[in-house]
Amino acid sequence: xxxxxxxxxxxxxxxxxxxxxxxxxxxxxxxxxxxxxxxxxxxxxxxxxxxxxxxxxxxxxxxxxxxxxxxxxxxxxxxxxxxxxxxxxxxxxxxxxxxxxxxxxxxxxxxxxxxxxxxxxxxxxxxxxxxxxxxxxxxxxxxxxxxxxxxxxxxxxxxxxxxxxxxxxxxxxxxxxxxxxxxxxxxxxxxxxxxxxxxxxxxxxxxxxxxxxxxxxxxxxxxxxxxxxxxxxxxxxxxxxxxxxxxxxxxxxxxxxxxxxxxxxxxxxxxxxxxxxxxxxxxxxxxxxxxxxxxxxxxxxxxxxxxxxxxxxxxxxxxxxxxxxxxxxxxxxxxxxxxxxxxxxxxxxxxxxxxxxxxxxxxxxxxxxxxxxxxxxxxxxxxxxxxxxxxxxxxxxxxxxxxxxxxxxxxxxxxxxxxxxxxxxxxxxxxxxxxxxxxxxxxxxxxxxxxxxxxxxxxxxxxxxxxxxxxxxxxxxxxxxxxxxxxxxxxxxxxxxxxxxxxxxxx
Length: 507
What we know:
By secondary structure, the protein is an alpha+beta fold. The chain has ten helices and 24 strands.
């Protein structure tokens, strides 16, 4: 389970961790949001440190499809359905600034990109209305989109009954960009601490983070962790965690130039990777990257089966050869469909955060970095782009409340089912086969038993965040929480999500 982009990554050397050291800003997370914010601030003369549990681009930032696009499936029409045109335009303006930031950074740092046309297309008659709605919403928001003609539809590598197109978008190897940003950050005087897990964020008496290696102090803290690792503001209940999968293949036929995303279900994402914009160097043959299999975290019978369905579709649709990589990633969607960016409530203005990119982080993340950096530099409101104010002061409409209520009702039902299911399976249980896991009940408490690399492990199957009963992910061999999307290794170590600690090991 390694992304295509992570096959050959040169990571810059980090700085020695000095417990108790003070900085102007400490950023938690070395994905695109964290790295872009850090580079903006360190180039402004600030003393900045990044602290990351794993490595650079460990999660969504290094495991996406590498599409830098302002045409984002049916995002704009979905947003426009319940919100004013001014908010949709502000969202587009924010992503446009993010697009320009990331392409300038790539050019400056010598990271290759290729120019592509992005398509949101209908696979069948049921998707035509969605394509038309997206075209209208995009035009209203100021994007120079067009409806694809018959010849263009017929020439596409996938079946397209209609499509809205946006020219001059970009494709990139995201890990090449992330490592270049990290290298530039370190070269500018920033301190990079990888492999250092943050356990707690404190606001008073002075801002600090507590890590497994000791504390760091700062004037300001930025949480660039996908889901915020603090419950201030209750954002875990305002976003939904979604997982999706990708597979790459050697491409044996014609190399399509566009980037494709279906408007109807099942969602399919398609792009190619060539020597000009991909990993592996000029020796590698063109690759086809296919994405899809999206679902709420921890709420599917088999992650592996969903990925195999994606593989079968790709082989039936394209002239592909050997499968080269398969991977999965997680992102968060806000209930009102617009990312949350800014000051964390109840933090005295000392903590900033960003979440809710809905799988479009390659433009939303640098936009979030621009806003956070502007605030931390103390720039006046009138000096900032209008979109920062519009998005920051958006109103919650009845449809937002309805989506949030529906999602939280689902969470309540899932929580009840999890406990009931565990109660029906008392220990002892049969030893799981290699790569499998099961949840059972031991002394009235759910436990998770799995077998990986020939070793059977048992951990508490109760999420330490809010007590959800975990589900086994048979694709990535992890324990996933179906409530608020925290994830853990078979040994119980925290991977991601709002949980701040790991699972209790039983054996």
